[in-house]
Write a structure and sequence with these properties.
Blueprint: E1 8-13, H1 14-17, H2 23-33, E2 37-41, H3 47-61, E3 68-71, H4 74-80, E4 84-87, H5 94-101, E5 106-111, H6 114-122, E6 127-130, H7 146-158, E7 166-169, H8 177-182, E8 187-190, H9 192-195, H10 200-218
Parallel strand pairs: 1-2, 1-8, 2-3, 3-4, 4-5, 5-6, 6-7, 7-8
Helix pairs in contact: 2-3, 2-10, 3-4, 6-7
Protein name: Thiamine-phosphate synthase
Binding site for 4-amino-2-methyl-5-(diphosphooxymethyl)pyrimidine: 39-43, 71, 110, 139
Pathway: Cofactor biosynthesis; thiamine diphosphate biosynthesis; thiamine phosphate from 4-amino-2-methyl-5-diphosphomethylpyrimidine and 4-methyl-5-(2-phosphoethyl)-thiazole: step 1/1
Length: 219
């Protein structure tokens, strides 16, 4: 059984949703709505503030059973004592991350092209996330790959690692969730579709229901 339930990754992206909001409460609302993993992403804040925020989010999630991973920053993940990290091609090598965090840590990897897909095959990771599928307010993707690109890259990984959870990211909303699953995703990673909605808990619940319905139909 995979270590990670990747059906719905709620990304607490400070640059997209604003650092002045209660990040712990937002994360808790997503967890209560059914998010299966939470990611904290913060590209511009000082390290000390990032550690404080990661600890706040982690404390808010205590008792929910929902793991927290930190985007890019292994040092922040270690200091805050969270469950893992999500890294990309320009971050620390997965082998080094694993040595630092240990065998029980969750490690996710971004996949953008065939070379990244091959890296996902060779790396000791717990999930892969393919994207960006579409342009988003949080991140302008110069060459969005769309569902077609996802359908091209996912099988490269699945051929060798059939049980590795693979998510879809960037520009995924409620309407795009079913086609993402149809394209082969095991789940979706979202920011705006949860944290820019008036009711984060309700938006999360609707997304998870869409994921589960699409997975059931695909099966």
């Amino acid at each position: 059984m995979p270590k990670v339930d990747y059906r719905l990754n709620a990304i607490v992206d400070v640059d997209a949703i604003g650092g002045g909001r209660d990040l712990g409460q937002l994360a808790l609302s997503a967890a209560r709505g059914g998010a299966t993993i939470i990611q904290y992403r913060d590209k511009n804040s000082p390290t000390r503030l990032m550690v404080e925020r990661a600890r706040t989010i982690h404390a808010a999630l205590k008792g929910t059973g929902v793991p927290l991973v930190v985007n890019d920053r292994i040092d922040v993940a270690l200091a805050a004592g969270v469950e893992g990290v999500h890294v990309g091609r320009e971050d620390m090598l997965v082998a080094d991350v694993r040595r630092l965090l240990g065998p029980d840590a969750i490690i996710g990897l971004t996949v953008k092209n065939e070379a990244d897909a091959q890296a996902a095959i060779e790396a000791d990771i717990d999930y892969a996330c393919i994207g960006g599928l579409f342009e988003t307010p949080a991140k302008q993707n110069l060459e969005p790959i769309g569902f077609e690109g996802f359908s091209r890259l996912a099988p490269i990984i699945r051929k060798v690692k059939p049980d590795l959870p693979i998510g879809a990211i960037a520009g995924i909303d409620l309407a795009r969730t079913p086609p993402a699953i149809t394209a082969g995703a095991d789940g979706v990673a979202v920011i705006s579709a949860i944290f820019r909605q008036d009711d984060a808990l309700g938006a999360t619940a609707a997304l998870l229901a869409a994921v589960d319905a699409a997975l059931k139909e695909r099966a």
